[in-house]
């Protein structure tokens, strides 16, 4: 017959509680990355920032890349509920390895759902992806592209506003 002292019972209790805590921590660590894709974004800008972060984390620069910066454009298709469906090459870079890597990344990452105001009908979203060995050059090129896109969007908004004013009755 086994006899357990009070110290033995306390050690077994502490060991069992420790095992339970470690098990819970392991389960939490396994589930957390899956929950990370469930980030809710409410604006198109926040959505784009989150997608760019995920793309940057998954993207690998091809081995045969020179010192410059190469840009390719990928178009992603989302269903009416804002869920990713597919990606295609919208504008080739001229470097087949870059284009294939861009498509691989675009088809492999988990996208957050599109913001609610963009849901309700299928959406096609084009994104420019920049590749290069020098992170600073890539960053500068991306910033210039963002500035150009912002200027074009502002011009389009101004044209829409002018058209709306022109169609209003006078007087």
Helix-strand category: alpha+beta
Low-confidence stretches: none
DSSP helix count? 4
Can you write the helix and strand succession as a string?
HHEEHEH
Largest beta-sheet details: 3 strands, antiparallel
How would you state the average pLDDT, rounded?
76
Provide the gyration radius in Å.
25 Å
Shape: extended
Beta strands, count: 3
How much strand?
15-25%
Q: End-to-end span in angstroms?
A: 105 Å
Give the strand order, joined by hyphens, for the main sheet: 2-1-3
Percent helix: 40-55%
Task: Label this structure with key terms.
171 residues, alpha+beta, three-stranded antiparallel β-sheet, extended
What do you see in this structure?
This protein is α+β, with helices and mostly antiparallel strands and 171 residues long. The chain contains four helices and three strands, in the order ααββαβα. It has a three-stranded antiparallel β-sheet with strand order 2-1-3. Strand 1 and strand 2 (84-91) form a beta hairpin. The longest helix has 32 residues, at 135-166. The protein is extended, with a radius of gyration of 25 Å. The model has no long low-confidence stretch (mean pLDDT 76).
């Amino acid at each position: 017959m086994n006899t357990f002292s009070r110290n033995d019972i306390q050690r077994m209790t502490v060991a069992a509680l420790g095992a339970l805590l470690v098990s819970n921590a392991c389960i939490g660590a396994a589930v957390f990355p899956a929950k990370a894709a469930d980030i809710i974004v409410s604006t198109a800008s926040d959505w784009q920032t989150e997608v760019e972060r995920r793309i940057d984390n998954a993207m690998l620069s091809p081995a045969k890349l020179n010192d410059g910066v190469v840009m390719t454009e990928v178009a992603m298709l989302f269903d009416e509920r804002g869920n990713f469906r597919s990606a295609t090459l919208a504008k080739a870079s001229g470097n087949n390895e870059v284009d294939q890597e861009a498509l691989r990344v675009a088809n492999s990452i988990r996208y957050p759902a599109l913001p609610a105001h963009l849901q309700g009908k299928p959406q096609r979203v084009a994104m420019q992806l920049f590749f290069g060995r020098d992170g600073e050059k890539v960053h500068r090129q991306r910033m210039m592209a963002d500035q150009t896109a912002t200027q074009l969007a502002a011009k389009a908004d101004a044209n829409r506003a002018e058209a709306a004013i022109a169609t209003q009755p006078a007087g």
